[in-house]
Specification:
The complex is a heterodimer of chains A (252) and B (321). Chain A has two domains: 167 residues, P-loop containing nucleotide triphosphate hydrolases (Rossmann fold), CATH 3.40.50.300; 79 residues, no CATH class. Chain A is 33% helix and 25% strand. A six-stranded mixed β-sheet of chain A has the order 6-7-8-3-9-10, sandwiched between helices. In chain A, a hairpin with a 2-residue loop joins strand 1 and strand 2. In chain A, helix 3 packs parallel to helix 5 and helix 4 crosses helix 5. Chain B has 13 helices and two strands; from the N terminus they run αααααββαααααααα. Chain B has a two-stranded antiparallel ribbon with strand order 1-2. Classes of the chains: A alpha/beta (252), B mainly alpha (321). Chains A and B meet through helix 2 and helix 3 of A and helix 7, helix 8 and helix 9 of B. The complex binds adenosine-5'-triphosphate (ATP) and magnesium ion (MG). Magnesium ion binds next to helix 1 of chain A. The site of adenosine-5'-triphosphate has 12 residues of chain A, from strand 2 and helix 1.
């Protein structure tokens, strides 16, 4: 379902933190149905771009369009409700809830089971089957009743992906989804992302270039807040400026 | 395996144990007026409900309100006025008081909810002081005198609440209703979302939850239940005065809740019972009550960080593994 129609696009995104320009005039278009990578050295501004696209930060300048409508003035919860859902670089789970409850929290809202204060929470058992299927898909079936805080780092990341997927979003923004994972888990999550992308769009920040080469249809390279290159992995990785940025031998 | 610092969220306990404990507690409350002066017990029940309502906010949402006296004392004024001046039936008067407290909660919550931590506490304190000032000045609250001589009347036109036992069992029924309402809210789909917001607000937002609305909802529920307590107290004691809307009252409910155990369902009720019992016991002596309560507070914060009930529950959990 790879199309050339952008589902998400941003033009002239700029973010200044008290004079420090973390993101400078970034224009990016993510085509529907693709897996798009955002890469770049540490501190390049990748997470800041994610925060801007999902409105966790308000851009100093620039405009963001998702599925044809301007989302620049929206609040982050509203952006999520439109189907643009993110994960966090520092794994974000609900630590004292079980793995099952973590996923059910995500399912509650679209199932209209979030505001009933007069009902018993046992009413949520109708969500168990879907929650377990998602948990199984990320390989956590054996841990469903463990509090999330007791999971290893890699498993927390897997749980976060399951929770994000529970919303069945049109587009996922994944910030280093495989950081801290072992070889086997990386393989499983790569497969999962490939499956997800059959009918969804994924924008991901990833440091593991093998994963990027393997998984992504398109790559955007960010360095010091600016876009350095944009294109297929082959084109981008051949670009001497990209190589320099990654080697840390920037010229000025 | 439990996390040591986790005193906010209550761990699920064996169901049977809770049921047995609950049954014993209710039996004790039913028998109480034959052992203890009923007015004292009614005072305890009103403050216990107030503290439980306050705990709904701090223990299950993580918001420290320093203005809850507004809802407790405000409801007392509404109820006292409705019953005394308009001649309302007592239950209707109490429901009006609770509804009025909910409305006040909506206003205060709307203005405060976007603030975090200490700023939230400051705004609730400031609004509470404003409300106390209004109560001092408004004609219907009768300034320093308050509304005195509120008739207890006949419940639903049938039961004479001037009978101490009738008044007591009615107060107990109100307390149990409020307590189970809180229990239901905490263990509901809505309660699950509150817990998620408390544990990781950013994540909840990223899942599309409009967290401010959930917090505001909980704030209004807490205010309404605090109001229920204050309204009932106005009928029990037959007056509504400035004492109940002033900041000292907001402080007292924080103390009760901390003492009993934040985030445990019964902790605040236990804390309220202890504080009221102490005040009552020391009222006759020369010893300054506030000083002693201050000392207890400091000891509690230093030694029993989870509060009395919180510490007991942690002990039991360690024993049962
Ligand atoms: N809230 C903030 N206030 C001030 N500076 C910030 C803030 N957030 C990010 N920055 C700065 O912006 C720059 C970009 O940070 P960002 O986290 O977006 O980088 P990144 O590309 O995600 O890096 P990494 O690969 O390490 O995750 C950094 O220099 C960072 O210090
Ligand atoms: Mg980052």
């Amino acid at each position: 379902m790879v199309s050339t129609q952008p589902i998400l696009s941003a033009t002239g995104l700029t973010m200044e933190f008290r004079g420090f320009v973390a993101v400078n005039n970034v224009t990016i278009a993510v085509n529907e149905g693709t897996v798009h990578a955002l890469i770049g050295p540490n501190g390049a501004g990748k997470t800041t771009v994610f925060n801007l696209l999902t409105k966790f930060l308000t851009p100093t300048r620039g405009q963001i369009t998702f599925r044809g409508s301007d989302i620049t003035p929206l609040k982050p919860a509203e952006v999520a409700r439109l189907g643009l859902v993110r994960s966090f670089q520092i794994s974000a789970v609900f630590p004292h809830l079980t793995v099952l409850d973590n996923v059910r929290i995500a399912l509650q809202r679209p199932s209209n089971l979030a505001t009933q204060f007069w009902r018993s929470s046992s009413a949520l058992s109708v969500l168990d089957e879907r929650a377990m299927a998602l948990i199984d898909a990320v390989g956590l079936a054996n841990y469903a009743h463990l509090p999330a805080v007791e999971l290893s780092y890699g498993r927390k990341r897997a749980l976060e992906i399951a929770t994000t997927l529970a919303l069945d979003p049109a587009m996922l923004l994944l910030d280093e989804p495989m950081a801290g994972m072992g070889h086997e888990d990386i393989g499983r999550i790569s497969d999962l992302i490939r499956r997800i992308a059959r009918d969804r769009t994924v924008l991901m920040v990833e440091h593991n270039l093998n994963v990027v080469a393997d998984l992504c249809d398109r790559v955007t390279v960010l360095a010091r807040g600016e876009i350095l290159a944009d294109g297929s992995y082959e084109t981008v990785s051949a670009d001497p400026r990209v190589r320099e940025a990654y080697m840390g031998t920037e010229h000025d | 395996m439990a996390v040591g610092t986790q005193y906010l969220a209550e761990q699920p306990r064996p169901r049977a144990l809770s049921v047995v404990f609950g049954a014993v507690a209710i039996a004790a409350l039913v028998a109480a007026p034959f052992a203890v002066y009923p007015v004292l017990m009614m005072n305890v029940l009103c403050f216990a409900l107030f503290a439980c309502a306050f705990n709904l906010l701090i223990g299950y949402v993580g918001l420290l309100s320093f203005g809850h006296a507004t809802f407790f004392g405000g409801a007392a004024y509404f109820t006292a006025h409705a019953v005394k001046v308009w001649g309302w039936e007592p239950l209707a008067g109490i429901l009006l008081g609770a509804a009025g407290a909910a409305a006040l909660g909506l206003i205060v919550g709307f203005l405060a909810i976007r603030r975090q931590g200490i700023y939230f506490a400051m705004i609730t304190l400031a609004l509470g002081q404003m409300f106390a000032f209004i109560c001092l000045q408004a004609p219907f609250t009768h300034g320093e005198d308050g509304i005195q001589g509120v008739p207890r009347g006949h419940l639903l036109g049938l039961i004479d609440l001037n009978q101490p036992l009738a008044m007591y069992y009615f107060t107990l029924a109100v307390f149990l209703f409020g307590f189970f309402a809180i229990w239901r809210i905490v263990h509901s789909p809505f309660g699950n979302i509150l817990q998620a917001i408390r544990e990781n607000e950013r994540r909840a937002i990223s899942l599309g939850y409009r967290v401010d609305r959930y917090k505001l909802g909980a704030f209004v529920m807490s205010a309404a239940l605090a109001g229920l307590a204050g309204a009932t107290k106005a009928i029990v004691f037959q007056f509504a005065t400035l004492t109940d809307v002033q900041w000292q009252m907001s402080g007292e409910v924080i103390l009760m809740t901390l003492l009993g155990g934040i985030g445990t369902l019964i902790g605040p009720a236990v804390g309220a019972g202890l504080v009221i019992a102490l005040q009552n016991y020391l009222a006759a002596s020369d010893f300054p009550v506030t000083v002693l309560i201050g000392i207890i507070f400091v000891v509690c914060v230093l030694v029993f960080r989870r509060g009395i009930v919180g510490e007991i529950m942690a002990l039991m959990k360690r024993k049962t593994g």
